[in-house]
Amino acid sequence: MAKKYKDFEPKWIKERAPKDSYRSIFRWGDPDFVKYPKESLYKMMKEKFDVTDEYFEKYNMSTGFDSVDLSKYPSKIDSKHLKYFISILGQDNVSTKDYDRLSVAYGQTAYDLMRIRQHKFENLPDVVLYPSTTQEVEKIVAYCVKHKIPLYVYGGGSSVTRGVECVKNGVSLDMRKNFNKVLAFNEIDQTITVQAGCSGPKLEETLNNAVNLFGAKRAYTCGHFPQSFEYSSVGGWTVTRGSGQNSTYYGCITDIVLSQKYVTPIGVIQTSHYSREATGPNLNQIMMGSEGTFGVLTEVTLKIFRYMPENRIRFSYMFKDWDSAMKAAREMMQHESGYSSVFRLSDPEETSMMLRLYNVDDTPLSPLLDKFGYKEMERCMFLGFTDGEKGYCKNVAKNIRKIAKAYGAMSMTGYVCKSWEKGRFNDPYLRDTLMDFGVVTDTLECTVNWSNMAKVHHDVREVCHALPHTIVTTHMSHCYPQGANLYFIFITPMNDAEEFKRYHTTILDAIQKSGAAISHHHGIGKMFAPWLEGYLGKKEYGTFKALKEYFDKDYLMNPGGTIGLDLPDSKKKFIKEK
Amino acid sequence: MAKKYKDFEPKWIKERAPKDSYRSIFRWGDPDFVKYPKESLYKMMKEKFDVTDEYFEKYNMSTGFDSVDLSKYPSKIDSKHLKYFISILGQDNVSTKDYDRLSVAYGQTAYDLMRIRQHKFENLPDVVLYPSTTQEVEKIVAYCVKHKIPLYVYGGGSSVTRGVECVKNGVSLDMRKNFNKVLAFNEIDQTITVQAGCSGPKLEETLNNAVNLFGAKRAYTCGHFPQSFEYSSVGGWTVTRGSGQNSTYYGCITDIVLSQKYVTPIGVIQTSHYSREATGPNLNQIMMGSEGTFGVLTEVTLKIFRYMPENRIRFSYMFKDWDSAMKAAREMMQHESGYSSVFRLSDPEETSMMLRLYNVDDTPLSPLLDKFGYKEMERCMFLGFTDGEKGYCKNVAKNIRKIAKAYGAMSMTGYVCKSWEKGRFNDPYLRDTLMDFGVVTDTLECTVNWSNMAKVHHDVREVCHALPHTIVTTHMSHCYPQGANLYFIFITPMNDAEEFKRYHTTILDAIQKSGAAISHHHGIGKMFAPWLEGYLGKKEYGTFKALKEYFDKDYLMNPGGTIGLDLPDSKKKFIKEK
Fold it and tell me: Could you tell me which chain A residue has the CA closest to the CA of B188?
C-alpha cells in the first residue's frame, strides 16, 4: 500500500475482521485487503478538517471487532413457517442465526455502516432463506403472500439507498449463496442468462473464459463495471437501474439487459427478449426500477460484448478550469465520433485530491502544472479510456485529444488513468479505515442536462460545504449528448448516524431544488423515497402505484417505503411540484 | 419517371386526384407526384402473377375520382357538444363535413385503402376538431370524459395498423392543421420541443435551418426518417414506437425522445427529461407504445444530431447467398467498429426486384454479376450509408468493406444506394398506381434475434408464398448486435379488403409462431391487437390493463380494440402462450 509516513501516522486498522464480528459485516469486501490514505492525503484531510494529529490518536467510532449478538432482537418467525421453508429448501438453506440475519439487514450507505457500529438494529429479518431456483422462489413468494409475510431480497448488498433493509421484518432471500448460476450462453445472439444473485466478478470471469467454458470463438465482457462491481449482483444492478463506470460506451444496465424473469405475487413475469419492439409500453423498462416491490427478480439475460482490452487507449488531460472542461466534455459527447468507455471529469476540489490519491503529486508532472497556468483549485482533471474495435478506439481518442486541446487542456498521458484504474474498485476500503476515526465518506449523484450543469454543480456543492471542514469533490461521469451524471463525494468528521442522515437530507433537498434528476444510477430504495413523488409529480407517480396494486396488492414485496409505495404523504417531501 | 415502354403499357393513372375526391384521401402524399413501374418491373409482375397484358387493360378497383359523399353515414354528434367545441376552438376548427371526417378515418394499410375504394365506411368520427394548444386539448379531453365521448387522434395518418380508426365514432383530433409548432430549441442540450402534429419535413427543415431560425452555431438533423417521413408526425412516431430507416445509427424514436407531455383523463402527464434516471419504472417508456389509449400526446422533446451529410459514405455489396449475407450482417453489428446509419440487406427475391426497381438492370454491373457467380434468386444486395463525424464514418465504412469481402461479397459501388435513396420516400406512390389495377402491395415486419433469423425468414415467407402468384420480398434493416428487423413486402393481384385481411392474418399468425416479435416499429393499433396478449403473456399484458384503468377507466381514449385493451378474449388469438 502507501509509503511509510515521515511524520505521525494514525493507527489505521489493518487486521482482518474476525469471522463472526460486526466488522466483517460492515467492512467492504475482501477481509484481507486494507487501504488507508497516503501521507499527503492524510495531511490534506487534517488541514481541511482543521484538526491536528491528536484527532487521529483514538478511534472515534466502534471498530466492530466484537461478535454479532442480536439477543435483544430475536427472530419472531412462527415455527410453522420455518418448517415450511425447511421443507422446500432444506435445513442448510434456512437460517435464523444472528450473524446471518444481520449480514443481510443493511446496505453500504454510511448511514448503514454507522448504525451497525452504533448497534442500532432497527430493521432485521426474522429468517434468511437461500433459494437455488426460480421454482423455489415461486413457492416462497406464494407462501409469503398466503401468510402475509413481508419479503425482502439481498443481492450483493451494496445498496446505498437502504434498498435491502427489512423494515417490516419477515423473510430475506440471500441470493449470494445458491442463486448465482449461469443458465445459458448464446454466442450467436451475444447474450448470457444468469440467476439474479450472480456477482460481477463471476459474470465477468465466465465471459472472459467463454472459449474454455462454452467452446466460444472468442472471449467476452459484460461491459458493466460499477464501483461496487466486486460485491454487487446482476439482480441488484437490474432492479435499481444501475450504471457501470464504462457506461459511456457500453450503456447503463437498462441498455444492457435484454430480458428478465420475476416471481411476483400474481405469478411469474417473463419479459420479452428483443432488441426493440413496438408492442405497447415496454415491460422491461417497467420492471427495471421496481427495486423488489413488484416481485423477486430471478433470471436476467444480458447483452454481452467482445473482450478486446488490447484496443484500449488510455488518456488524461488537465483543463484550466471547470467552465472550459465542461464545454469540452459536452463537445466530446455531441461530436458523433464515438464514445469513450470511461469518461470522467473532476472539478477543481476533486482534482486537488486526486493528484494526491493517484500519486501524481509524486511525479515530475506536478510542478509543471502550476508553471503552465493550470492552477491548484482551478484546474480540472479529465481521464478515461476507450473500448471497442481498434479503429473505433483510435478515432475516439484522436477526437478527444483534438477537442481537449481546442479547449486549452494539457495531456497528462495515460499514467493518471492507470492510477485511477488501480483504485477504481478498492476505494470503498478507504471508507472503513477512515470511519474508525470518525471520518465519514459518502456519495450522492444525479443526472443533469448540459444547460443546467454549472448551476447544479454550484448549488449542490454550496449546500455540501455548508457543513464546515468538509471535503466535497465532484466529478462528471456517465456522459451523454444531452447531459451527464454529476457525482458528489463528501468527506467530513462525523460519528453519528442521525447526524449523517440530517446532512444527507440537505444535499438531496439541494439536488431536487437544483433541477437535476434525483438519481442517475443509485436507485431510490427507502432512503431517497420521500423525494420521489415530488420529483416525478403526483399523477406521474400514480403509475407506479397502479402497477404495484396490480402485482402486489397486499404490499408484501420489499415493503416499508421502497420507492415510496407504502409511504404516507406525511413522510414525503414535495419540494418543487412540477 | 420511368422510360417509355417498348411494348404494351398499362394506362397508369397520372392525373392529379380532384380536391374533394376519395382518391385525394387514399392516395399517398403529394397530389402532383406519380410513380409507376418501369417496363422490366412490369414484365416481372406479369410473369409472377401469371397474367398477360389483358389483366392490365382495365382498372380492377374503383379509382376514386368521384367526390366524397357520406350522406349515408351522417354525423351523430349532439349539437350541444358541437356548440361547446366551437366555443373553445372557434367555428373554423370544428368540422362535421364529409370530406374532413373521411380524411381522418383511415390510415395507410392496404386494408384501409381498399375499404375506401370499396366505399366501406364502417368507422367514421362524428366531428373533427383542430386544436392549437395543449390547453385546448385539456378542455376537449375533460369534456369528452365528462360526456363519455370517444376520442381519437390523427397525426400524419400513415398508420398501417388501423391505429387512427374511429371504431366508436365520436371525436377525432386532426393535429395536422394547427398542432404542428416548434415550441423550443436548445442548442446546449441539443434538443427540440415540438407539438405532436409536427410533420417529418417540417421538423427536419427547421433543424437544417437552425442557423437562420435560431441563430444556432450549426445545422442539425432529427435522425428519424421512416419511409412515411413526409406524411407522418412526431406524435405518431412516438406513441407507436416508430423507427426511421437510419435507426441503426441514430436509434429508434424510443431512443430519440427525451420527454413527452400527454393530456389524459386524469390530467396532464409530463415525463422527465434526462438522459438516464434510476427513479423507478421509466415513465417515458410506459407512455411510448400507449398509442393514444392513455391520453393525447401533445408535446415532445427530441434529441437532435449534427447535420453532416458531407461525411456520408455510401456503399453497396452483393453477397452470393442469404446465409453468408446474414452472417456478414451479424458480424458488422457485433464488431464494435460503429454503426452504419442505413443498413439494409435484401434477400434473393427482393434483390431480384431491386435490380429492376433501382435500375441496376440497365447498368454494366448487371451482366457481371452472373459471370462472377452471383446468381439470380440466390444473390443478396446489401446497401447503406454512414452518418456521424468524418473519421467515424470512414471507420464504419472500412470495416463494413472488410467484413463484406471476408464473406464473399462484391462491391456494387455507391450507385445502388443512391438509387435507393431516390425512391426511399416515394415508393408508396407506386402502391396506388398498382392498386388501380387490383394489385395490392403491403408490408409486415418483426424483430428477430440472430439465432432465429433463418427460421423466421423461411417460415414467414412460406406462408406469404402460400398465396400463389405473389411476389414476396424480404429485407433486414434496423439492425442490432442481438438481432434485426425483418421486413416482408408482398405484391399480389387482389381487389377485396376482406380477402386482404384474411391473407394478412395468416402472415401475422406465422410471425408469432416463428418466435419473432410481432412488431418492431409499426406498432399494434387495432389490426395487430388480437395477437398482442398472446404474444406478451396474460400476466405480462395485465400491466397494460392496470395502466389503462389508471389513466382512462371509462375507456374513452382511442377505444375499440387499440392495443387490445377493450377487446374481448373471444377476439384475441393465443397462438403460442409463453
Answer: A451
**Closest CA of chain A from B393, distance in Å:** 8
B contact residues 497-536, partner A, Cβ 8 Å cutoff: 517-524, 532, 535-536
For A199, which DSSP code? B
Q: Does B485 touch chain A (CB under 8 A)?
A: yes
What chain A residue is nearest to B288 in terms of C-alpha separation? A281
The rounded radius of gyration (Å) of the Cα atoms in chain A is 24
pLDDT band at A482 (very low <50, low <70, confident <90, very high): very high
Residues of chain B with C-beta less than 8 angstroms from the C-beta of A236: none
CB contact at 8 A, A392 and B337: yes
Alpha helices in B50-195 (DSSP H): 79-89, 98-103, 110-117, 134-146
Note the pLDDT tens digit of each residue in A105-155.
999 999 999 999 999 998 999 999 999 999 999 999 999 999 999 999 999
Best A279, A524, A572 residue to mutate vs chain B (most B CBs within 10 Å): A279
Contacts for B567-572 with beta carbons within 8 Å, 24 or more apart? Answer: B567/B529, B567/B530, B571/B530, B572/B529, B572/B530, B572/B531, B572/B532, B572/B533, B572/B534
Contact check, Cβ <8 Å, B519/A449: no
Cell of A5: 509516513
Considering only CB atoms, B482 lies closest to which of A275, A285, A519, namely: A275
Closest CA–CA distance from residue B41 to any residue of chain A (Å): 33
Cβ separation of A336 and B308 shorter than 8 Å? yes
Give phi and psi for B269, each to the nearest 5: -115, 120
CA distance A75 to chain B (A): 31
In whole angstroms, give the CA distance from residue A114 to residue A495: 7
Q: Is B286 on the interface with A (CB under 8 A)?
A: yes
User: What residues contact residue B29 under an 8 Å CB cut-off, 6+ apart?
Assistant: B230, B231, B426, B428, B429
Q: Does A219 touch chain B (CB under 8 A)?
A: no
Percentage of residues of chain B with pLDDT beyond 70? 99
Min CA distance, A201 vs chain B (Å)? 23
Helix (H) or strand (E) holding A343: strand A342-346
Cell 432529427 belongs to residue: B222
| DSSP helix/strand/coil, A571 | helix
Strands B182-186 and B305-306: unpaired
CA distances from residue A107 to A110, A427, A543, A566, B381 in whole angstroms, order as listed: 9, 17, 28, 20, 55
C-alpha cell at B31: 397530389
Picking from A550, A517, A157, A559, the residue whose alpha carbon sits closest to that of residue B279 is: A517
Q: Is the pLDDT assigned to residue A276 strictly greater than 70?
A: yes
How far does CA A493 lie from the centroid of its chain? 23
| B358-397 residue pLDDT tens | 778 778 888 889 999 999 999 999 999 999 999 999 999 9
Nearest to B481 among A287, A303, A398 (CB): A303
Select from A222, A127, A234, A142 the least CA-distant residue to A174.
A127
> Contact B480/A276 with Cβ under 8 angstroms?
yes
Chain A residue whose CA is closest to B392: A337
For residue A483, the chain B residues in CB contact (below 8 A) are 189, 274-275
Return d(Cα A435, Cα A13) in angstroms, integer.
10
Q: How far is CA B254 from CA A276, A280, B377, in A?
A: 9, 12, 36
Q: What distance in Å separates the CA atoms of residue A222 and residue A387, rounded to the nearest whole number?
A: 12
**Interface probe, candidates B263, B279, B334, chain A, greatest A C-beta count within 10 A:** B279
Dihedral, B112, B118, B122, B127 alpha carbons, nearest 10: 80
pTM, two decimal places: 0.97
pLDDT in tens, A320-376: 999 999 999 999 999 999 999 999 999 999 999 988 887 788 788 888 899 999 999
